[in-house]
Amino acid sequence: MDHGVPGPERRTAVLISLEGITRHFVVGGETVRALQGVSFSVEKGEWVAIVGQSGSGKSTLMNVLGCLDTPTAGRYSLNGQDVQTLDDDALAQIRNKEIGFIFQTFQLLPRETALSNVELPLVYRGMRPKERRERARRALDQVQLSNRTHHRPNELSGGQRQRVAIARALVTEPSLLLADEPTGNLDSATGEEIMRLFAQLHQAGHTICLVTHEPKLAARCPRAIRISDGKIVADGPGPQVALEQQPLSRVGS
Amino acid sequence: MIRVVFFFKSVRVSLRELWVMLRVEVYEGARIALRSLGANRLRTLLTTGGIAIGVATLLAIVGIIQGLNASFERQLATMGTTSLYISKRKFGATGDDWQEARIRKDIDRAQMEVVKNECTYCTAVAPNIWYQADVSFLGNTINGVQLIGTTEEYIDVASYKMARGRFLNYSDDADQKHVVVLAADIAESLFPSSDPVGATVRIDDHPFRVIGTLERRGKMLDANWDKAVVMPLRTMRAYWGVFRSLTLIVGVDTADNMDLAVDQLTGIMRRARKTPADRPDDFAINRPEQLLDLYEKLTGGLYMVITGIGLITLIVGGIGIMNIMLVSVRERTREIGVRRALGARKRTIVLQFLMEAAAVSGVGGAIGTAVGLSAAKIVSLITPLAATVQVGTIFFGVGFGAVVGLVFGIWPAARAANLDPVEALRYE
Q1: ipTM associated with this complex
Q2: Minimal C-alpha gap between B338 and chain A (Å)
Q3: Taking CB atoms and an 8 Å limit, are B344 and A124 in contact across chains?
Q4: pTM for the full predicted model
Q5: Chains A, B: CB contacts under 8 A, how many?
Q6: Which of the four CATH numbers 1.10.10.10, 3.30.460.90, 3.40.50.80, 3.40.50.300 does domain A46-67+86-252 have?
């Protein structure tokens, strides 16, 4: 302690580390610079909002964070693994083990029951049916849907569907929950319900990245990163970053 | 030591990985495939139908061809498996060969006697000439009966067996007796209720006494062995085909000695016919199997064409599968994106779609097999074509269907796997 040497728990506390991430697309012969040197890190247990207007690059950033897309340049390390060097199969495995996706449109498989939907990521892990059913049940318990296990998505309300999706994200015990506009397709009361669920998950120690265009939602996160034109323009406590927006948007009006 | 441990460890890991892969990718792939097929029943049914028609066509064709071949081989056996046919020309000679053989020296009895005396592998030698004539008894006439002129040894080399009476003997031929032995069809048609032995039949208006009848022997191509009359060679020569060359039918002691017998007979015949040493053989020693080659030469092209038609039908079915799989991939773009996001590898997606295609076409193959085999059976019942069905054909049908599915499913499956997950998730 006296020597000031950082303990091993200090080193492992960093979950996400981005250094100089750029992502360029070539669309119709023109290069779109969606991300231009983004660097930040997220520690385990943090709840971070990534906030920005559409076209700001936040979706690209989310795809990179979720290992669905690989950056043109830069270094991305997730839970101690350098992701940008991995091949397609290894990325699929990272997505399966480390990341729980929550989408704006829920992205549940319409023909499968809630339980089967939640089981799906465990199928790709090679888990035996009995064990994965057990774990899927527990995950549905966690989102208070244990009475809806055999319903299909079209028999569930929007909020219930999103909770099934959250259970699907939780079932693999991922190191990162990556939520893309999770309340975007929900009415405000249901959205509020989902936000409370996120708060609970944060309390329980989950690391959450919430990608949104709504400053209101960002304001409820302990930390928010504002992205604009592919660059980070603010990084700080959620309410503060969310408020910074206000003067700017007023200039326009 | 370390290497060995490492070796075992690495083997154990890969076996486990293999097991997991089998369970996850094959079992789950199959489950997903079956579900999606169940969800689009009509479409599945129609696609299955396409493959079923292809497999059915192919199997019916194959069944009929196999049946024809089998029946030809049975017919061939009626010529005797250890018999050689020495004649002026080769079986199946056509065109110039046939013309050339026409002017060759005839095979006569003197040559036959040399063969009889010198051939050590031969058990019997019988001369043969043929003619067509009308045979009648008490106003009943049968037209176009095969007359066979021969000697007493014919019964030992031909696949005939006596039914009643006796066969020809030495003096029947030596004394040119007017005696005949009736084959089964003739005996039954002319003497439906009485014993033909002792009766007198008329052949082209010449009287002949029946001394015996033969058991059924079967058919050989268009020749019906049972619509024949056997008489002494010299007697037949007196009325029909005086200038005809003989065909010598030679019985060889064992099937193993056939090659040796052919070599020996070639030498004997060349000497007997005084063939100059610098000239090729001016006769042919034919084996029944040569007819098989000839038959295959004649029918092979036809079989290829009709098998080709069957294959084309199957390809059309396969294109149907490919089409439907492309539709399925497009419809399920988002699902593919979700699966990829949740950790499915490319090969998992490929397998899922391949199994879907293989399942459709495998079921199609099974239905097609049932239909095709029934068709072959019906053909064999209502036409003289005998279709045979082998157990192997059934596996072939189902397997072939599945392979068609795999082949035509590869491209759609690869398209599915190569979708960009980001794009796929956004697909509306």
Answers
A1: 0.90
A2: 7
A3: yes
A4: 0.71
A5: 62
A6: 3.40.50.300
